[in-house]
Amino acid sequence: MTDMLVPFLKMNGLGNDFVVFDARENNVTLTPEQIAVIGDRTKGIGFDQMITVEPTKSDAYAFMRIHNRDGSEVDACGNATRCIGRLLMGEAGTPSVPIQTNAGLLIAHASDTETLVSVDMGIPRLEWDQIPLAEEFADTRAIELQIGPIDAPVLHSPSVVNVGNPHAIFWVDDIEAHDLERFGPLLECHPMFPEKANISLAQIIGENEIRLKVWERGVGLTRACGTAACATGVAAARTGRTERKCTVHLPGGPLGIEWREDNDHIIMTGETAIEFEGELDLNSLTYKKTASGDAAMEPLK
């Protein structure tokens, strides 16, 4: 293998998929343009986020850097944290592992099976300037924002929460009745959100059960978004729609969300999967698979 061939893993958490590079010994630096090429689902490997596992000087086991498909860097990704937590727990041989991110220290925990992983996503940020919003709102459970005519808005009054990145959750009777692919880009870049935002449609389908569809900033429609599920669970509890423990059903599958009463931390639990192992040619940005599925279960190194 030449220096221009870089090993990687392709993983997903409920279909929210990632390309993972281990950069702890050999630095992996890619431009936003290169990241966009690799992330393209027709010409590249294809992913929602690119993850680089890097060395850290903190007490964490490693640092996790996150880039969206468009090359932009973001602070948090819950499903990626669960996937990386699975790898690092396997490597360390421990039932939990602390992971440093730009959003702070996140702790992954082993669950009932090897593929089921929980992560402590920390405390949600609920004040308007923490999300952040362009205008001051005393109550972020429902802010003044709408799409459509004033007297008959299509979407309105979202709950807003920051779980490492900004989220706006619109409560609707039927998530399939709204074209999120049409409204998502407009709302993501709305002037209300100076750092853009992840946009979700949420529907209560039962006691402590929520259906969710997510337009992720810098990505688009996604089969699952962990931080959106966390933000929705918090918003549902704050607005009295559910208890502090609920199940969020995304197109890729369910996530268990618990907003703990003792410390306000959010615990997210769900499945992880390794799709394949491969090598990326940094010159051509082409790749080849070297192992698939459970054959790629070795630690990162």
TrEMBL record:
The keyword GTP-binding does not apply. Its main location: cytoplasm. GO terms for biological process: lysine biosynthetic process via diaminopimelate. Substrate binds at N16, Q49, N68, G78, N79, N165, N198, E216, R217, G226, T227. Pfam families: DAP_epimerase (PF01678). Its EC number is 5.1.1.7. GO terms for molecular function: diaminopimelate epimerase activity. The active site is at C77, C225. The record marks H167, E216 as: Could be important to modulate the pK values of the two catalytic cysteine residues. It catalyses: (2S,6S)-2,6-diaminopimelate = meso-2,6-diaminopimelate. It is an enzyme of class 5 (isomerase). This is Diaminopimelate epimerase.
